[in-house]
Amino acid sequence: MAQRIVKPDTGNNLQIQNDNASAKIEINEDGTIVITPGTSTSIVLGSDAGDDLNIGSGKLLVEGDTSLVSITGDLKVGGNDIQDSGGVVALTFDGSGNTNMSDKILQRPVVKDYAESVNAIGSTGGGPQDIDLSEGNVVTATVDTSENTFTFSNPSAPGKCCSFTLILTNGGSETVNWPASVDWAGGTEPTLTASGIDILSFITIDGGTIWYGFTGAIDTKTPS
Known about the structure:
- By secondary structure, the chain is an all-beta fold.
- It has 2 domains: 4-100, no CATH class; 118-217.
- It is built from no helices and 21 strands.
- The chain has strands at 4-8, 14-18, 24-27, 32-36, 43-45, 53-54, 59-62, 69-71, 75-77, 80-83, 92-93, 99-100, 118-123, 127-132, 138-142, 148-153, 162-169, 176-177, 182-184, 197-204, 211-217.
- A 6-stranded mixed beta sheet has the order 13-15-17-20-21-19, with no helix packed on it.
């Protein structure tokens, strides 16, 4: 087994690292734990028995190649689980502060001042136009040039509710074809605005086998 060195760095942060310093764990003065794997050296937190790693009220930051970091027990921050005992990653961190939930459940959150990602398609250009739900659940697009056929891809798995809002400009200026999987209210798709903005919503609970489509607003305008 490689030697482990415990020492403070120049900023009085505590470092636990390999003797070649390629992989290390730092505990900073502000309570942040920084895990940095080496180019090939992995870091395993917890024991073979699956002991928990409890960070208390501190913070965890994983830098570099996160695939080289594994946790054999429950990872807890402030006493709350982030990773289950089976080693299934519930959160993926990156250097930009983003967190990927990897399709895991976030239970009973209280959300304030949240935003949704916008998939700005721009001009559809005629022909087929896919709406990829992995790019965002609010979509903007402008119909132009010629007949347009929309497809929807990457909805949530069956048993999960997936929805998106489409803000469509000049949808009635050309023929727009919707996926055959869309069920419209009354079985009739809306008449779109030739020069203006329409807002449409779609929802599925079976992985896109059926999309329920409904109209939010047709030809939205500022009140005169």
